[in-house]
Amino acid sequence: MSDQTDRAVAALEDVVAIERVAPGMVRVVTWSDSYTVDARGDGCLCPDKEYNLAPDENCKHRWAAVLATSDELPAPWDVVDDLDQGPEPLPDFEEFEADPEVEYV
To answer: Which residues belong to any copy of the SWIM-type domain (predicted)?
Structure first.
């Protein structure tokens, strides 16, 4: 595979969340870092983009930003407006009612 294909695959494998921060701008969160990326240009400031890639090449963060902001392709992630808001809280354990018909392991 080419380096660009590898980076596109890395975007699909490593990205865990996308947050909208402005029109055409998203925060791309991976397992190890997060970067705010301008999906309309070459606006990622990660070390891979800065040191390893030509100006016309994309890092995994830019690939993720392009997919997340595309009107033509479905994003493989949920794109949210506020990652800090967090998910709905889980019910307390005491509220859980076990089904007597089910064997829990």
So the answer is: 35-70
pLDDT tens digit string along 73-90? 777 777 888 777 665 565
Q: Which amino acid is at 75?
A: A
Site of tokens 């606006």:
43
Beta bridge partners of 25: 22, 38
3-class DSSP state of 60:
helix
Rounded Cα–Cα distance for residues 52 and 49 (Å): 6
* Cα–Cα distance measured from residue 66 to residue 34, given in angstroms and rounded to the nearest whole number: 15
User: Six-digit token pair at 99?
Assistant: 């089904």
Please state, in angstroms and as integers, the Cα–Cα distance from residue 9 to each residue in 58, 60, 61, 86, following that order. 12, 8, 11, 27
Q: Are strands 34-38 and 25-30 parallel, antiparallel or unpaired?
A: antiparallel
Q: Please give the pLDDT value at position 88.
A: 59
